[in-house]
Amino acid sequence: MAGYGWTPELDQLFAPLAEAGLLPARIVRVDRGQCDAVLADPETGELRTVRLDTRRVGDADMINCPCTGDWAAVDLHAQPMAAVTALLPRSTAIIRKVAGKRSDGQVLAANVDTVLIAASLAADPDLGRIERFLALAWESGAEPLVVLTKADLVDDAEFIRADVEAVAPGVTVLVVSAETGEGIDVLRACAPGTAVVIGQSGVGKSTLTNALAGADVMAVQQAREVDQKGRHTTTTRELIPLPGGGVLIDTPGLREVGLYGGEGVDLAFADIAELAEECRFHDCNHHTEPGCAVRAALADGTLPQRRMDSYLKLQRENEWIASRSDARVAKARLNKWKAITKSMRAAGGPVKR
């Protein structure tokens, strides 16, 4: 299982589960109530893929449900089919807010070392969306890396890379072409272990996955020539082994990238955070306070207004998520107390807080 990311630390963590007769497996694909996972055959030691029931783990909270990249404890003798009985703690997790007005989170991939943020050079990259993806990646605990695809279709790739690097402080930005092979070897070297590819539909994620895997492991549907939006034939997140070791998780195109709170925004906008440290007041709101280094940078053009607007927008989203999460926790506590009160009254006992 070493090629799939198994480590001595995981082996030690899994020891109590092994004593109970369970086997470690890595989830490669999740369907409704079931998943495919790779494990070492207990008799031969050879890796094989098994179909598993996942209904014994997780709950209504999607964050705790099995997802691609999870390490699972498997009972091969469970009836009516082999089943996942527990999940190991995640080292990292890419969590986005579900679509719409709900504040729940959805895990896109777990136990990831590198997040490959794919953007196509065939159209002008949306810098605001890249910033949003970077915040999502930083918040996961993994290392972000921006991959500018389809370099064979443009002549000004290096100029575009410079623009992207300006909104990705501390992040490597690579220019690649899956068609010509440009930058693919460098990308492999920069993303060892477990990597996940995220991005919009039509940016070349599946083509990039095929290039890294050295085979046509993912079906690809061409993007429309006019607007480059296209449709992505990937409908589920799938973990794919790479030649030479390591794995890659390919994901469907993300139309909405809602953040789920945390410090990802501050890490994605590290340049603004550094400017804020130079403000006269440590609690500066960057509005009307004297000696504000952020407003000074906006005035002299070293900090683009577009980037500041993007930063403030994502901060507001985080604040909204935090307020909704607090309300959800309070509601859960209230419901629990109501259930206890109802139970105690039914039993005829006193109700104490």
From TrEMBL:
In this chain, Zn(2+) is annotated as bound at 279, 284, 286, 292
InterPro entries documented for this protein = G_CP_dom, P-loop_NTPase, Ribosome_biogen_GTPase_RsgA, RsgA_GTPase_dom
- Residues recorded as binding GTP, renumbered to this chain, are 149-152, 199-207
Look up the record and name the cofactor or cofactors this protein needs: Zn(2+)
- Domain (EngC GTPase): give its ranges: 110-255
- Localization terms from the record: Cytoplasm
The cofactor note from the UniProt entry for this protein is: Binds 1 zinc ion per subunit.
Using the UniProt record, give the first listed, main subcellular location. cytoplasm
Name all CP-type G domain ranges.
Answer: 102-257
Q: What class of enzyme is it?
A: hydrolase
The lineage's top-level taxon is: Bacteria
A Pfam family name for this chain?
A: RsgA_GTPase
EC number(s) recorded for this UniProt protein:
3.6.1.-
Q: Which keywords annotate this record?
A: Cytoplasm, GTP-binding, Hydrolase, Metal-binding, Nucleotide-binding, Ribosome biogenesis, RNA-binding, rRNA-binding, Zinc
Q: How does it assemble?
A: Monomer. Associates with 30S ribosomal subunit, binds 16S rRNA.
Family, according to the entry, reads as follows: Belongs to the TRAFAC class YlqF/YawG GTPase family. RsgA subfamily.
General function of this protein: One of several proteins that assist in the late maturation steps of the functional core of the 30S ribosomal subunit. Helps release RbfA from mature subunits. May play a role in the assembly of ribosomal proteins into the subunit. Circularly permuted GTPase that catalyzes slow GTP hydrolysis, GTPase activity is stimulated by the 30S ribosomal subunit.
Q: What name is this protein filed under?
A: Small ribosomal subunit biogenesis GTPase RsgA
**Origin species:** Kitasatospora cathayae
